[in-house]
Design brief:
Elements (H helix, E strand, L loop, with lengths): L1 E3 H4 L11 H10 L3 E8 L7 E12 L6 E7 L29 E5 L9 E5 L4 E2 L3 E2 L3 E3 L2 E3 L2 E2 L17 E2 L9 H4 L4 E7 L10 H12 L21 E3 L5 E10 L9 H9 L7 H13 L4 E4 L7 E5 L5 E3 L5 E3 L5 E5 L2 E5 L3 E2 L9 E2 L6 E2 L4 E8 L1 H10 L5 H6 L8 H16 L2 E10 L6 E5 L2 H6 L5 H10 L3 E3 L3 E5 L10 H12 L19 H15 L3 E2 L5 E2 L3 H4 L24 E2 L4 H13 L5 E8 L22 H9 L6 E8 L1 E3 L8 E2 L2 H15 L4 E4 L5 E13 L2 E11 L1 H7 L6 E6 H6 L16 E10 L4 H12 L3 E10 L8 E10 L8 H19 L2 E2 L3
Parallel strand pairs: 14-17, 30-33
Antiparallel strand pairs: 1-13, 2-13, 3-4, 3-6, 4-5, 6-11, 6-12, 7-8, 9-10, 15-25, 15-26, 16-25, 17-20, 18-19, 20-21, 21-22, 23-24, 27-29, 28-29, 31-32, 33-34, 34-40, 35-36, 37-38, 38-39, 39-40, 41-43, 41-44, 42-43
Helix pairs in contact: 2-4, 5-6, 6-9, 11-12, 13-17, 20-21
């Protein structure tokens, strides 16, 4: 919202010496975001006067049209408009001409002999340090410059030509004052909860409070009551439109133009003057914050209606775009159909017509009768319509932030008054006002509630005074009943009222106090485990990558997840950051694989990434509404339980991805690429830090290669529970996601791994007695997993077995078709003595015997 300081002074008696910077400081302290203060007319210096074109000579010998003009600029010392003498009224401005006509070269062609124009005389300086001096050009001497709005820094007036002034202004008067070229404009970034500040009325109210001055409310007008003579209106959707005021003005002069003061205020506020009727509706909208629309009554067929659009209904808006309407769009209609997109933009079929003069009869044709609409629409409906049609307008910006419904009648009256005053119209006696029944909103609050929120003692009198300043009616003593003003739809709860008191008293008055922390309790067991896992994976060469927890549901198709898989049940966000990723992740792999793809695309080809984080799994209680917890006291256990019941399950997962070389080649030897075994080893590393024994079996799931996928299990209460998968990704997944070839991955449910842990991780015990090593090679069927063989050997060897390691796998004709040889190194050690050869051999033989019994293993070479 752009607020000219000269306009603001109409509603608040600011000190004469107060500058825009001073007002900015006050408003910022009151909580408004005043981004800049623009100095309008900076760099402009007079003399700048009103002149009248006496003669025009067309110079045709040049490539472009050139005019040699003589302009009457008045007598020296001519008085500026509205003053008794010729004293300059602004810095750099001066009234009075030279006393004789000036010869001026000009290339513009939108003026004629007799027109009043703005002339910069020699010695003037225009914005951009453009100095005006007497100079010879095009074979003539030019003694000044006939100015356009752009050259004077006036903004966009839509004409881009020479300023042609109304004929009533006297030649020689100060044009800088006439055109209000010197001003200061505050540019305010209005937050969504401060919609009332998208008007001069709202900003003036905040300014009056900040300075402790009375407000001259422009909405305090004498408004006639509704009667049955007004233009008929039918509301089919009272929820979408709870208030509609219609007024009619006839006998408008089609040739009437917006006065200069109105055009300049619109320009400073960032709007382009269009025509008198449209300019008046825009002016009143800026003044009171109530969007309005003017219909050409001769083009309106029957009663004006408000209803929801029919799906697929077509309508052409004022910008000339033909739009296909949605069933949720709110439209203004007549007997023919839609004539306006409610709260957003009017229709081309009832547009106010520009005045046109008939060249034969000289008659001026244009709109002479208008119907003024001042309505209040549902904020959510208007916001959705504007976004649906990608059509943000000044009206929709205000409606979606909240418009004062009580201001509609005053805005309509103000529009009627201006049309009568400036366009010579006559207001018809009929007044239509349809209002849906509603009660004012009240909020009950303890008088000391702002004190408790801010930690400062304000006292009841201060609280009541500040609430009354923002327009509230306050009753009660210790318990206040506050009636919220109609222009503040953002005030709903005691905390909202407390914020008003605190901001008006000044945020800078709040003391800076630090909360007293409880005595140190250290990290929880969960936190210590997560840090150990992060350090272990980093030590194994992995780099942590943190990703957003948002996914698209299409990613599950790319990962090859079954349609019935619970992983596809996602929690959808009501207002996602990106429409392409509207759901919360149910696994870490989508984000981690995306990070791998981006890094690979940027030249990093040997990658090992890991992430730990929460995933979100909706439970049976999905759809339960979350309750709002109190902030002035600790929630009860029941409230916390109800809140938790509305949340999805959020287990913590850990995942790794690998691509490229796992070991680099160099003078020390050959390198090797990352493979499925590295992904499994990462899972073992995580389980080891948790003190959990991980069970690894061949498996098949979603994104993993069916022949290179390991299912990961742990024992919980004596039963095997799945906790994740590891291995090489399926080639189809690699192609679908644009990943490097042979990409490997692992993901574990860290909470379930921790649940299976023994609690305290035992440090390894170092024995002083020597180790006895025994090797064994067993021939088994190729279908027998090496993990099962290892488990049986470990069980058969007993307590003396310290560790077991598979160091060779062999297949070939020597051992027969369908067979494989598994060679294990077994390390035996006793805690209290040196083992004999017989003891180690006996343990080895017991392990072989159990493998033979259960697995059908045969000792190789036996």
């Amino acid at each position: 919202m752009r607020v000219p300081l000269s306009w603001l002074r109409e509603y608040v008696d600011l000190p004469a010496t107060e500058t825009g910077r001073d007002v900015q400081t006050k408003l910022v302290a009151a909580g408004l975001e005043v981004e800049t203060v623009e100095q309008v007319g900076a760099g402009l210096k007079g003399p700048l006067v009103v002149g009248q074109v006496l003669t025009i000579e067309e110079l045709t010998e040049f490539k472009k049209p050139i005019r040699f003009c003589t302009v009457d600029v008045g007598q020296a010392g001519g008085a500026p408009p509205g003053s008794a003498g010729g004293t300059p009224t602004q810095a750099g401005g001066s009234g009075g001409g030279t006393g004789e006509p000036q010869e001026i070269i000009c290339g513009a062609r939108n003026f004629a002999v007799g027109d009043k124009v703005v002339v910069a005389l020699p010695g003037a300086v225009l914005p951009g340090d453009f100095q005006i001096a007497e100079r010879k050009t095009y074979g003539r001497v030019s003694r000044g410059m006939i100015c356009s709005g752009d050259e004077l820094g006036m903004g966009d007036d839509g004409s881009h030509g020479i300023i042609v002034l109304p004929p009533e202004y006297e030649v020689g008067i100060d044009a800088a004052e006439l055109l209000e070229l010197f001003d200061e404009v505050l540019d305010i970034a209005v937050t969504p909860d401060r919609g009332y500040c998208l008007s001069m009325r709202g900003v003036a109210r905040e300014t009056a409070i900040a300075y402790g001055r009375p407000l001259r409310d422009p909405a305090l007008l004498d408004v006639p009551g509704p009667n049955s003579f007004g233009h008929p209106v039918k509301i089919a959707d009272p929820i979408g439109c709870d208030r509609f005021v219609a007024r009619t003005v006839v006998g408008l002069d089609p040739e009437a133009r917006s006065p200069i003061w109105m055009q300049r205020r619109l320009q400073k506020a960032g709007m382009r003057p269009v025509s008198l009727a449209v300019d008046i509706t825009n002016y009143v909208m800026l003044e009171l914050g109530q969007p309005l629309h003017a219909y050409d009554r001769s083009l309106v067929d029957g009663p004006i209606g408000v209803r929801r659009a029919e799906a697929g209904e077509k309508f052409t808006t004022l910008d000339g775009t033909k739009r296909v309407l949605d069933a949720e769009d709110l439209v203004i209609t007549d007997n023919r159909g839609p004539i306006g997109l409610a709260g957003v933009m009017g229709g081309a079929n009832t547009e106010i017509a520009d005045s046109v003069r008939d060249p034969e009869t000289g008659e001026v044709k244009g709109t002479t009768e208008v119907v003024i609409e001042a309505a209040h629409f549902d904020a959510v409906s208007i916001a959705r319509t504007a976004r649906r049609h990608k059509l943000s307008s000044e009206a929709s910006r205000r409606f979606e932030r909240g418009v004062d419904p009580q201001a509609a009648a005053a805005a309509a009256q103000r529009t009627v008054d201006l049309l009568v005053l400036l366009a010579g119209g006559t207001a018809e006696a009929g007044v239509t006002e349809i209002v849906a029944p509603s009660a004012p909103r009240t909020v009950t609050m303890r008088a000391d509630h702002p004190d408790r929120v801010a930690g400062v003692t304000y006292g009841r009198e201060t609280v009541v005074r500040r609430l009354q300043e923002v327009g509230c009616d306050v009753y009660g003593q210790d318990e206040l009943v506050v009636t919220v003003p109609s222009w503040r739809p953002d005030l709903h709860a005691p905390n909202d009222l407390a914020e008003e008191v605190i901001r008006l008293e000044g945020y800078e008055t709040l003391p800076s106090t630090l909360p007293t922390p409880p005595s140190g309790r250290g990290l929880t067991g969960h936190q210590r485990l997560h840090r150990r896992i992060g350090r272990a994976l980093a030590g194994a060469g992995y780099v942590e990558a943190l990703n957003y927890p948002f996914v698209s549901e299409q990613i599950f198709d790319q990962l090859g997840v079954d349609a019935e898989d619970t992983c596809r049940r996602v929690v959808r966000l009501v207002n996602p950051i990106s429409d392409e990723e509207p759901a919360l992740r149910t696994a870490l792999l989508p984000g981690l694989l995306g990070a791998l793809r981006r890094n690979h695309g940027r030249g990093s080809h040997d990658l090992a990434l890991f992430e730990t984080g929460l995933v979100f799994r909706p439970g049976a209680e999905a759809g339960v509404a979350a309750t709002q917890l109190p902030v002035d006291r600790r929630p009860t256990e029941e409230q916390i339980a109800a809140l938790n019941a509305a949340l999805p399950a959020q287990p913590r997962h850990v995942a790794t991805v690998l691509a490229g070389a796992r070991e680099q080649a160099g003078w020390w030897g050959e390198g090797r690429p990352a493979d499925w075994a590295d992904a499994v080893e990462a899972a073992r590393t995580v389980a080891g830090e948790a003190g959990t024994e991980l069970i690894v079996r061949q498996d098949q799931y979603g994104p993993w290669h069916p022949g290179r996928c390991a299912g990961l299990f742990v024992l919980i209460d004596g039963e095997e529970q799945p906790v994740g998968f590891a291995g090489e990704l399926h080639p189809r997944v690699v192609n679908a996601l644009g990943l490097p070839l042979r990409t490997c991955a692992m993901e574990l449910d860290l909470d379930r791994v921790e649940q299976a842990s023994a609690g305290v991780v035992q440090a390894p015990r170092i024995s002083t007695f020597p180790v006895a090593t025994q090797d064994v090679a067993l021939v088994v069927s190729t279908e027998v997993p090496a993990e099962e063989v290892e488990r049986v050997l470990r069980e058969g060897a007993g307590e003396l077995l310290e560790s077991i390691r598979l160091f060779d796998v062999f297949t070939g004709e020597q051992i027969g078709e369908g067979k494989k040889s598994l060679a294990y190194a077994l390390r035996f050690r006793a805690a209290d003595r040196t083992l004999t050869v017989e003891e180690a051999s006996a343990a080895r033989d017991a392990a072989i015997a159990l493998a033979t019994e259960r697995m059908g293993a045969v000792l190789r070479g036996a």
